[in-house]
Specification:
The complex is a heterodimer of chains A (225) and B (254).
Chain A (H helix, E strand, L loop, with lengths): L2 H33 L2 H32 L3 H33 L6 H7 L1 H21 L2 H31 L4 H33 L15
Chain B lengths: L7 E10 L2 E11 L4 E5 L6 H7 L10 E9 L2 E2 L7 H7 E4 L10 H11 L5 H14 L3 H4 L12 H14 L4 E5 L7 H14 L4 E5 L3 H7 L2 E6 L2 E7 H6 L4 H7 L5
Parallel strand pairs in B: 3-8, 3-9, 6-7, 7-8
Antiparallel strand pairs in B: 1-2, 1-4, 4-5, 9-10
Classes of the chains: A mainly alpha (225), B alpha/beta (254).
């Protein structure tokens, strides 16, 4: 394997290790939330420090790679994408930490009825699925699948947009649950962010594999529709 | 190829060294006052192609071309073209600095003297202007009578550029002009190219990808006598369209 490929692989491996850590944080956050498991939530929060170390390490690896190998074309795009993927992974890790922090603040589990009404569990599962799909796409370089991930984000946005009304209605009927309601709204917002950040990662994969920029694309409405 | 007015153009150009087919059906148009870089592995034909623009290959036994090479729309292989006139228009700088064993001043005005210009004031004025353009004037202005061979490699190369500029060409061909120089001298030549493109059309052959990236507006990638890809430099170095180009610029050839 050419030297440049060895170094690129080392960078990719480091990124995948970080990916696993963040996936553990995100999936663990779901477990902690559903089971009101404060011990697990605290463990996930502690893992944040490890993720931060990965963040710094990967940034440094990218910097060295650019300085020493003067990458061009696909190599250049891959190292630029790695920088941004790293950044997004770190932020998803932060968000997962935030979700766990909410769990530690809850005095009792969120009522199932409320989780169902706001579609929070469905949202969490979708966010997790999108996240693990980007990892697969990163390895397979299948950009057609990456584009599918972009579409899935719509569901998260939709659930988020409807959540305030659903929550308000529920809280009017159960004013004693106001604190839980605020925590839950915060959590839904965080899941919506996970969707956005996961989408960013999928976009970076499309950028480096296909040399196409798909960020900030607004669909033009067809005339007459 | 569009009907745009190119400074330099090749149309269906084929070139042969005897039976060896060195350039295969090249079509390219180079814009005025822009820098075009030719890249490609050794033996790909880029230097041969560069030398067709001032007919330097004419000296080589068995060399022949088919197709057209146009300078300002005129075929330079036309039998009415005088090669010495052509070379006044199309200057050249080589890989190794090749000053004449004469003084700095004599080197710069050599071409003018050959043309019969003897007026001292004209010669001095041209020498200063050319040396300034080549960013060498400040370093040599007090030693114009010193031997050119006493200059450093980087200074010698800038002297060769001044010598090429003295005869007021409109095109400057450069065959790896900085490959024999240290990074500082190399950077000076690159800065110079950046300045000179305001007045000249420049074509540069280089093996240094980063250099091609820094100095050129357009880049052409040659491989085994073919022009594989020609596009804006920033496009070619970030998202080349041909796999061969990508493999070459990322060092994964073969």
């Amino acid at each position: 394997m050419p030297h440049i490929d060895v170094e690129m692989k080392a960078l990719q491996d480091k990124l995948l290790e970080m990916w696993d850590l963040v996936e553990y944080q995100l999936a663990g956050g779901r477990e902690a939330l559903l089971n009101q498991d404060v011990v697990l939530a605290e463990k996930i929060m502690k893992l944040g420090r490890k993720v931060n170390r990965y963040d710094i390490k990967i940034d440094r690896q990218c910097e060295n790679f650019i300085a020493l190998f003067n990458p061009l074309a696909v190599d250049l795009r891959q190292v630029l994408a790695s920088l941004k993927i790293n950044n997004n992974l770190e932020r998803i890790g932060d968000t997962a930490e935030g979700i766990s922090r909410i769990v530690t603040k809850l005095k009792e589990p969120i009522p199932q009825e409320l989780l169902d009404a706001t579609r929070t569990s469905e949202m969490y599962e979708k966010a997790l699925f999108m996240f693990s799909s980007t990892r697969k796409v990163f390895l397979s370089s299948n950009t057609a699948e990456a584009r599918l991930i972009l579409k899935q984000d719509k569901l998260l946005n939709k659930i988020y947009r409807q959540s305030d009304k659903v929550l308000a209605k529920y809280l009017r009927e159960h004013p004693e649950q106001i604190e839980v309601g605020l925590h839950l709204y915060n959590l839904i917002k965080k899941l919506e962010r996970v969707g956005d950040q996961t989408t960013n990662i999928a976009e970076e994969i499309i950028f480096y594999r296909d040399a196409k920029v798909v960020r900030h694309r607004v669909k033009k409405k067809k005339k007459g529709s | 190829m569009s009907k745009k007015n190119y400074k330099l153009q090749a149309r269906d150009l084929n070139a042969y060294y005897g039976n060896f087919h060195a350039l295969k059906g090249i079509n390219i148009g180079m814009e005025e006052k822009a820098v075009t870089a030719f890249i490609g592995p050794s033996g790909c034909g880029k230097s041969t192609f560069l030398r067709t623009f001032n007919r330097m290959n004419d000296f080589i036994d068995g060399f022949r071309t088919e197709g057209d090479i146009l300078l300002d729309g005129k075929d330079i292989y036309d039998k009415n073209i005088r090669v010495d006139e052509l070379r006044k228009e199309v200057g050249m700088v080589f890989q190794k600095p090749n000053p004449f064993p004469k003084s700095i001043f004599e080197n710069v005005v050599y071409g003018l003297k050959i043309q019969g210009i003897k007026n001292k004031a004209v010669l001095e004025e041209t020498a200063e202007k050319s040396l300034r353009q080549a960013a060498l004037w400040e370093e040599v202005k007090d030693n114009l009578n010193k031997s050119a061979l006493a200059l450093s490699g980087g200074q010698q190369q800038r002297l060769c550029i001044a010598r090429a500029l003295a005869i007021s060409p409109s095109v400057l061909l450069m065959d790896e002009p900085a490959s024999a120089l240290d990074p500082i001298s190399s950077a000076k030549i690159e800065e110079l190219i950046y300045e000179l493109k305001h007045e000249y059309t420049i074509v540069i052959v280089t093996h240094n990808m980063q250099q091609a990236g820094r100095v050129s507006d357009y880049t052409a990638f040659f491989y085994i006598g073919e022009l594989v890809e020609f596009s804006k430099t920033r496009t070619l170095f970030t998202s080349p369209s041909d796999t061969r180009t990508q493999n070459y610029i990322t060092g994964r050839f073969g």
